[in-house]
Amino acid sequence: MTEKQILLLPGPTPVPPQVALAMARPAINHRGPEFKALWEEVTAGLKEVFQTRSEVVILTASGTAGMEAAVVNLISPGEKVLAVTIGAFGERFVQICRAFDVEAEVLAFPYGRAADPEVIAERLAADSGHQIKAVLVQHNETSTGVLNDIRAISRARGNHPALLIVDSISGLAAADLPMDAWHVDVVIAGSQKALMLPPGLTMLAVNERAWQAAEKCTNKRFYLDIKKARSSGLKGQTPFTPAVSLLYGLRESLRLLREETLVGSFARHALMRDMVRAGVRSLGLDLLADDSVASPAVTAVCVPEGLKPADIITPLREKFGVVVAGGQGEVKDRVFRLGHLGYVSFNDIMAGLAALEAVLVDAGVPVTRGAAVAAAGAVLGEGTAR
Amino acid sequence: MTEKQILLLPGPTPVPPQVALAMARPAINHRGPEFKALWEEVTAGLKEVFQTRSEVVILTASGTAGMEAAVVNLISPGEKVLAVTIGAFGERFVQICRAFDVEAEVLAFPYGRAADPEVIAERLAADSGHQIKAVLVQHNETSTGVLNDIRAISRARGNHPALLIVDSISGLAAADLPMDAWHVDVVIAGSQKALMLPPGLTMLAVNERAWQAAEKCTNKRFYLDIKKARSSGLKGQTPFTPAVSLLYGLRESLRLLREETLVGSFARHALMRDMVRAGVRSLGLDLLADDSVASPAVTAVCVPEGLKPADIITPLREKFGVVVAGGQGEVKDRVFRLGHLGYVSFNDIMAGLAALEAVLVDAGVPVTRGAAVAAAGAVLGEGTAR
């Protein structure tokens, strides 16, 4: 029965059965009235999740294409951005910039730490000529399990006109990010995370300041052109054939999110994080990130002395059907990542921790049997989402 | 019951129920062994459909991104291509070239006609300096319902080294295109056509000559980088998160195609085309394309004097649930398009023709009731796929 898996990944999320069945609806003409109604419902629903009045565009592609779309639509070749990196996805933003001749000044913080808003404030204050056109930063850094303080980073801009472009692919709906209230200019999301869908869609919420930048941007783009997407979207269409089955799934998952409420989803993710952290610590393992910056979507756990990540990941999958992720970037060989993102229940967390405990026992790590579930259960009983 | 639709579109195809259910399988880790097995099965299956030994890459995006990928991976800024256009999708190739600073010399043939291989041969023969790096052409032009003779176009190159890049998004598996045998360098496909899937995947089969061009190409790309896709693919992965649910669907649709056989699929599409053409003609309507170049995927039908396309398309959908497409490009106001592409049966064609007949009667067009079904039935009875 190990094919009955529990995915504890930082994406893809398990897909709710009602979402999977919604995707099995018969095909429709994406140039017809049925599509227009679907489109209007999902874009309105997404605005609630992005907490914005700005336009949201949906592209048929995965999250990296959303990051690329933010760069090629908003920053011209030769222009400079401040790329704030705290892990592998921050580094990906840098790679994308460089692929399209955008100068990325990298402000790197160590793996496991959050970005320091004061350092960002200082750098921007020193840029009196406003050479920096945008600040690129992750909301939730998937590779390290660290949540950045986007509100503070937004405030750190002061009067600097740089756009704030936030990759919230693994953050949106798992952690609060009120785009308009926090004056974020662009937020990027992906379908296969807290939105509880399979991969294949990326969404960008783009405010008026950013649309003005898109008008002036000379970088080349065609398929990922968000201006084309906006003007088609206003007519209830997409410029190119959209992934209709995923949009049907999105309509259903937005209904589920509305039922849980955004605040409920944030609280569930925070509580799962706290259960995981308490459970893992009770097994004597170290966590990569401090509590103060810990992600509600994924927890990077340090592998005990003498073991490699595969010594934990492989038996978890093969013996228990519990699927966790390896490390990425410079902590690749030191951590495994236990996700708690999307359609994951408290029961899934308990079962995952029990399996982890058993795997550690088998590997000869001295752990107290039952400790992880007891610790997580205590957290759950108190309901103490921070 | 008009919500029980019959899609007679040049994409998206109706999706077979078994494919829809396959897409509802539980999510998997796209970095794990389950994915590798899935990936290897679908790429091997696609090679059979492309009739090639070359590598096939699958990108999470729709067909236009596949066209863009062919341009940005193979043609450098400032280089020239010969863009052979016979309709709106040929024009899209030109737009894509120009968006990425590729010089597109347009060789345009009138809407409704196929490209003349002799004219292409002359143009290439005159290019003694080999300035033309590639010939871009549609296999099946979706906007006009015309099939180009790719074998003849390939031969027209003679000794000219230009790559032959064929958009077969609406052609693959509907009409024969043995890539290796016909010396085609790149073939582009899309999921929502004869592959019988929802939209969201585009596939490119790329031969060795084209991979060499990709090595030298200086155009900018990141998400659509086919070299990255190839090197990840050889490890059973994708560089960026793939649309896993669509890949599960693809596995199932490839099984269905294998069961029907490619030759069977070509014959079915050709027979549906002949049924439609006989049926429509028996109603006194004109066809945009001649028999000799008629597409097996879609038939563009001229609207009778005094009517607009919407006068036919809207009642077909609203009264009968039969969904056909409007025109595109310069014939937008003169034709509607009756698709017979993908998961479409002879019964669907019969029902669609019966509905068309009824709509024409209602619109006051003088038609003989029963004529279309009688004519199509005669074709079907003879099984005379040309």
Tell me briefly what this model is.
2 copies of one chain form a homodimer. By secondary structure, the first copy, chain A, is α/β, with parallel strands linked by helices. Helix content of chain A is about 40%, strand content about 15%.
**Spatial gap, N to C terminus of chain A:** 36 Å
pLDDT < 50 runs, ≥5 residues of chain A? none
Spatial order of the strands in the main sheet of chain A?
2-10-9-8-5-3-4
How much of the polypeptide of chain A forms β-strand, as a percent range?
Answer: 15-25%
**CATH fold field value of the largest domain in chain A:** Aspartate Aminotransferase, domain 2
Measured by residues with Cβ under 8 Å of the partner chain's Cβ, the largest interface is: A-B, 55 and 55 residues
Oligomer: homodimer
Main sheet: strands, sense, barrel of chain A: 7 strands, mixed
Main attributes of the structure:
homodimer, 386 residues, alpha/beta, Aspartate Aminotransferase, domain 1, Aspartate Aminotransferase, domain 2, 7-stranded mixed beta sheet, 3-stranded antiparallel beta sheet, 13 helices, 14 strands, 42% helix, globular
Structural summary, described in words:
2 copies of one chain form a homodimer. With 386 residues, the first copy, chain A, is an alpha/beta fold. Chain A has 2 domains: 6-12 and 260-382, Alpha-Beta Complex (Aspartate Aminotransferase, domain 1), CATH 3.90.1150; 17-259, 3-Layer(aba) Sandwich (Aspartate Aminotransferase, domain 2), CATH 3.40.640. Helix content of chain A is 42%, strand content 16%. Chain A has 13 helices and 14 strands. A 7-stranded mixed β-sheet of chain A has the order 2-10-9-8-5-3-4, with helices on both faces. In chain A, strands 11-14-13 form a 3-stranded antiparallel β-sheet. The radius of gyration of chain A is 21 Å and the shape is globular. Chains A and B meet through helix 1, helix 3, helix 4, helix 9 and strand 13 of A and helix 1, helix 3, helix 4, helix 9 and strand 13 of B.
